Amino acid sequence: MSIQAIVFDAYGTLFDVYSIGSLAEKLFPKRGAALAELWRDKQIEYTRLRTMCSTYKPFWEVTQDALVFTCKKLKLDLTLDAQNMLMGQYAKLDAFPENLGVLQRLQSMGLKLAILSNGNPEMLDAVVKAAGMQGLFNHLLSVDAVKKFKTAPEAYQLGPDVLGLSAKNILFVSSNCWDACAAAWFGYTTFWVNRADAPLEELGIQPDAIGADMTALLRFIEPDAGTE
Amino acid sequence: MSIQAIVFDAYGTLFDVYSIGSLAEKLFPKRGAALAELWRDKQIEYTRLRTMCSTYKPFWEVTQDALVFTCKKLKLDLTLDAQNMLMGQYAKLDAFPENLGVLQRLQSMGLKLAILSNGNPEMLDAVVKAAGMQGLFNHLLSVDAVKKFKTAPEAYQLGPDVLGLSAKNILFVSSNCWDACAAAWFGYTTFWVNRADAPLEELGIQPDAIGADMTALLRFIEPDAGTE
């Protein structure tokens, strides 16, 4: 295989965005799951609207806007305390359990590893540190550098530019099918971590490979390593 | 007021996209509402992804893709017959009941009226005809002309270009808050038909006016006309 580097999406792929659901459930009993889900959907929607309309602002602020909207929509009283707790949780999301081991193994194989995320640099630094993943990535790439969120080509272009490789020789890994599909449109080799057993998006393109979690990625990269 | 023309969004604003819910309910008992809602969300999502990634294809096809995904996601068996019935329904959506009278009144005031829609021309022709709205619009503008869906500026630019007016002198009317906000970003004077009593999107901008239905638009245009 000619894969020389792996670029990971952050939120939803390395870090579990739904892990804030438990805090949300404490703050708003019986509404935590609905809050977490709509917050995530709205956050992504706002990134797309702001990208198409050239009204970028940092992901942290977009995330906060999405939280405010979500609570209005669900008729939940979002106190400043609750807002700070939920946003604070966003800065230290849980990593999926298998990820640290998989990343260490990939690093030991000599692959360059990077994150390419909608998150602004401060968010990425915080969440990587909280997950104990310092030192595993050669680059933390934020779309903030181009002021356009994924799925703008300018955002995906950061990978080849910084790594000095063609997109085809970079494996782009995301748990968001739309992200993997758009990266495939861009030219990356792509891997969709389909944790939720979701159907493929009907976009007329598909990822080069699909697995249920990050250990499946390891088997894709190193076919003989997946037997333990 | 310096409004010289009114540009309407079509789906959701003039035509009720959720009216397919009743057909969906017949085809898939107890799942009709879920189907209609996810179909709509996914349809809009695909327009945004395809716009950001320059992979445009006509709205009819995108709508069909979204239906296929929705049924896979909801684990509904979409037969070809059911697909054709649902898509056929999309071509003749119900108009909201007050719309015809309001449009006739606006036309009689000498205002230029247009539709600016994600729908491709064939879809717009069909749905306008089915609703008995022929002759009410000076222009049926489809984003197909620029191969980018809303909220791309190129899509909104069709209004000023074809009408020969500045965006500020055109009232853009949509029941989708994101559409009204993006049109405001673009430079239109904007009116949000907030039929569902939804909260304002947290996008840092708001429509110039908001009303619960199209009769409220009439009162906005012609303040003395709203008393009957």
Keywords:
homodimer, 228 residues, alpha/beta, Rossmann fold, DNA polymerase, domain 1, 2 domains, six-stranded parallel beta sheet, 6 strands, 45% helix, 12% strand
The largest interface is:
A-B, 31 and 31 residues
Structural class of chain A: alpha/beta
Shape of chain A: globular
Low-confidence stretches of chain A: none
* Sequence of strands across the biggest β-sheet of chain A: 3-2-1-4-5-6
CATH hierarchy class name of the largest domain in chain A: Alpha Beta
Which range does the strand content of chain A fall in?
A: 5-15%
Tell me about this structure:
Two copies of one chain form a homodimer. Chain A has ten helices and six strands. With 228 residues, chain A is α/β, with parallel strands linked by helices. Chain A has two domains: 145 residues, Rossmann fold; 74 residues, Orthogonal Bundle (DNA polymerase, domain 1), CATH 1.10.150. Chain A has a six-stranded parallel β-sheet, sandwiched between helices. The two termini of chain A are 22 Å apart. At the A-B interface, helix 2, helix 3 and helix 9 of A face helix 2, helix 3 and helix 9 of B.
